[in-house]
Amino acid sequence: MPELNLEPQALCALSDLADRGRAHTFELLDREEPGRPVPAFVLRQGDRLHAYLNRCAHVPAEMDWQPGQFWDHEARYIICAVHGALYEPDNGRCVSGPCPGARLQPVRVAIQGEQVYWYPDERFQPVF
Going by DSSP bridges, is the β-strand pair 78-79/86-87 parallel, antiparallel, or unpaired? Predict the structure, then answer.
């Protein structure tokens, strides 16, 4: 198995993420599903960032209703465009829809200076 890359990976400038606006989407490798990159996203809510795999907890389908659009019409919850499941941004827990209590798979992100980074781990690795 290849060596793990644990170096932070630059995603975008913090200024590219508007509060409750369009998410920045990216791909990573999921070592639990080898063979192809999987989509992920990071979005901003005030001074907090939330990042998850772009995969509904109910059905493994991409959730954005337009590219990078994950907020419901009130910009309160992350919504799955496939069947309307609503997820709390802070913890990815489904609060409404067909999978109550299920959670989105988080991806670790942080701000360094004015740049947003994601952090690989034993499961998630960068695409090269």
Answer: antiparallel
| pLDDT-above-90 percentage for the chain | 90
Is the pTM higher than 0.90? The answer reads: yes
Query: Which residue from 22, 38, 46, 50 is spatially nearest to 116, judged by alpha carbons?
Result: 50
* pLDDT tens, position by position, 65-102: 999 999 999 999 999 999 899 999 999 999 999 999 99
Q: What is the DSSP string of the chain?
A: -PPP--S-EEEEEGGGS-BTSPPEEEEEEETTSTTS-EEEEEEEETTEEEEEES--SSSS----SBTTB-B-TTSSSEE-TTT--EE-TTT-BEEESSSTT-B--B--EEEETTEEEE---SSEE---
pLDDT value at position 128?
Answer: 80
Alpha carbons 57 and 45: distance in angstroms, whole number: 21
